[in-house]
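Curious: why these numbers?
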Amino acid sequence: MKINVGVFFGGVSCEHEISCISANQVLKALDPERYEIIPVYISKDYDFYTGDALFDLANYYDLNNLCSSLDKICIYKDQNRVYIKPLKSTVFGKKEKPIDVAFPVMHGTHGEDGCLQGLFEMLNLPYTSSDVLASALGQDKAVMKIVLKSDDIPMVPWFYFWSHEIDEKISELKDKASKIGYPLIAKPANLGSSIGIQIIHDENELEEKLKEAASFDFKIVVEKMITQLKECNISVMGSLYDCKVSAIEEVYKNDEMLSFKDKYEGGSKSAKGGSKDGASKGMASTSRKVPAVLKDGQQEFIEDLAKRTFKVLGAKGCVRIDFMIDEADDSVYVNEINSIPGSLAYYLWSEKGLDFVSECDELLNNALKVYREKEKKVYSFSTNILSNYRRK
């Protein structure tokens, strides 16, 4: 019997299109002999859709036209099973489809931050990503850094502030920036894909660049910029019970920092892979070297630190953890965790002999395993104290 897999993607964040690219890679990788594949597209207007047109990325050039060809759906639970159902009747009636496990492939706000995971928890539906808390920690870079700091995970000097407080606290922010030392990086706490990131070279640029970053989010992280930077990423897959690491990549950039264009706007040449026709393959098209060239002991140090970070944050599924190496003194720092990375970091796992089809299988098996462990826990009791208030 096939397992019904709902692949959730899209969403309201700035990374909507990136989610569509990543999800289409998953839709093509899932084995139709093993799975009944149900694409669930969430529009920028918070509407849920499904339909066969979602299997072809070429249909996404006009999202309004795409949505008009799809069935708008609702999600509900009945008799311990979750279903999706078209909102409008057809000549064949409203035919619902059951979902056994959810495969979220969403980046950013309301998809990677725990909101969607909260929906799955309320439906008691197994899912492949980190849970509500771990997702929220991974999405909010400020809170993530606070948690990692509590476990002595090495990070560059940093601070954060609320965006509405720039004007009244500009002197305090200048003092904090001065203590860290320029140049600095300012970035929205809850966005990814390098969106909204600003480089601040000196105090003269500080206020303007902070306000630019603040236009993207309510909370802004400011951290020391490493000028002799080697950026390396590694993926971790599994759960608190068991996890493993992928190959390590070194990511190249065309400017002072890795930009959205470097990551996604297609046709990048890379040490491995790349697109012949110039079309974007998401993070898989970024210029990189896999495996990264590292000094003695750095690979083992990064692998151990990645597993430790994964467990400190309580992550699950497939994540990518970004590291920074200061080549001035070979210091290694954790930068951030991506709880649902672009392309699910399949290009890192392929270096370990795990193809994308097998990766998706492992994520689904892991989701069901974690769900079974969760079912062993006690969350409620059969008593009903409200019965004491019945009318006499």
User: Anything to note?
Assistant: Confidence is low (pLDDT under 50) at residues 259-280. The CA atoms of residues 113 and 136 lie 4 Å apart.
